Amino acid sequence: TTTALVFGTVHAHSADAIFEAAAAKRMRLIAGKVLMDSNCPAELRDDPESAYADSKALIERWHGQGRLGYAITPRFALTSSEAQLAAAGRLAAEYPGVWVHTHLAENHQEIEEIAQLFPDSRSYLDVYDRFGLLRERSVFAHCLHMDETDRALMAGKGGAAAFCPTSNLFLGSGLFRLPAMRAAGIRCGLGTDVGGGTSLSLLRTASEAYKVLHLQEHALPAMQALYLATLGAAEALYLDSEIGNFAAGKEADFVVLDFAGSTLTARRTAAATTIEEKLFALMTLGDDRNIAATYVLGRRA
């Protein structure tokens, strides 16, 4: 993976650390300090004022430095007070070029608790919208349990969904409704979810995405999976003018795939007659052994 949107921890220095590491590798990376002031362990708690001040300082220090971008990162509405969500919304208004990154509608219990905490909001998504956190460059992880009204709202405001199939299956949270999300016009990208997921490989993640769609009697052709992991993800991040495919003028971030990375993929792809079939074989059977090289800004990394 050459570009990532990453959750840090509640500590400001977690954002400093990942930005320093990404800058050293010339990676395009978006991250932020997590905001969390309620329903969480005391030692991992900030407050509305410190969350605002720390995030503002980090934005000023890192956003737009080289290929780095900042994401205002409330963990999710359950762990932020209304005052903290308002502070996050204030930051989003002051810095319209930064990202917003949080979780949305991952499981039913969470949604029920949100309804109790925010009785004046129509839905979980409406909570974020009320506080100015639903807009272009807002990326919501999971988005499993949404209705048509929510999907229309997200599409209209320019929010994007991170499809995280390995964690959704591992935790039994539900099935991402990709056809419904795309039909509504929502930008969708494939996410590995390092916390609840079971692999950092986008090949393995694409394999799980195929199963999620198949369980709903939908297909996930290899080329659509490739799109979700590349240009679709770039569109979700509003970075498709910079990355996502090999169009002239874009940044040369890419991986080189080796069909013979393992004896199993070598045997399976040897019988393939089309590039789509070869890619599907890698999507279902491949892993990090099939990544021959990774390039960042045209330089082998």
What can you tell me about this protein's structure?
The protein is α/β, with parallel strands linked by helices and 301 residues long. Helices cover 43% and strands 17% of the residues. The chain contains 13 helices and eleven strands. Strands 1, 2, 3, 4, 5, 6, 7 and 8 form an eight-stranded parallel sheet that branches. It has a three-stranded antiparallel sheet with strand order 9-10-11, with no helix packed on it. Strand 4 (68-74), helix 3 and strand 5 (99-104) form a beta-alpha-beta unit. Helix 9 (202-214) packs across helix 13, helix 10 (222-229) packs across helix 13 and helix 12 runs antiparallel to helix 13. The chain is globular and about 60 Å long. The chain starts with a strand and ends with a strand. The model has no long low-confidence stretch (mean pLDDT 97).
